[in-house]
Amino acid sequence: MASTTSVMSLKRIHREIVDVQKEDMGDIKLAPTDDLHLWKGSLPGPEGSVYEGGSFDVDIVLAQDYPFTAPRVVFKTRIYHMNISDQGNICIDILKNNWSPALSLFKVMLSLSSLLTDPNPKDPLVPGIASQYVQNRKLHDDTARRWTQLYARPKPPPPTVVPTLKGKGKQKAPVTPVTGGDLIVISDDDSPERPRRKRKASVEADAPTRNRRRTRSSHQDDIIVIEDD
Question: Which of the residues 70, 79, 91, 130 is marked catalytic?
């Protein structure tokens, strides 16, 4: 009997996987893990609620005889809610005595989203929060929003790293054309002891061919190149 129930459970789970892929779930996320009896879900804080802007993760554990036994759902994200304990346990009727095999995991997620919008102070799991909700609504709402900011804000995406091209060696100053009879030579050494120098070089204007002469200065790093056109 146990194996028959397990086969029926797997068939139902596979059917729900297909149904979830067809559903327009909006920002709700729901998917099985490698273990088909363990699902992961995520709920966005409903717009206009004190949980807006948050993202709440849940774990869903299915019994071997699912769907004849209600799934066990636990909040993994901390939340300030009268129907959800610090351990993430949830007090909602469809997960207790009102469960039916006709319900699905997607409908469970929708019910949890509704619970965030409309908590039930008549059946609280945390009586202190329920009392505060009834007696001091502003303090309750401010606390719930603060918890949402602290514990339920979605993690920002990792920064995009833009690769940079690193040059090999020191970048040299661009070469400018020489005009007239002056040639300016700039040393590669940028130290303050080696200032830029301006030297006078004679150019033979009437040379019949193009000659190239190299003259080394008194400083080893400085080479004067003269081209005669």
Answer: 91
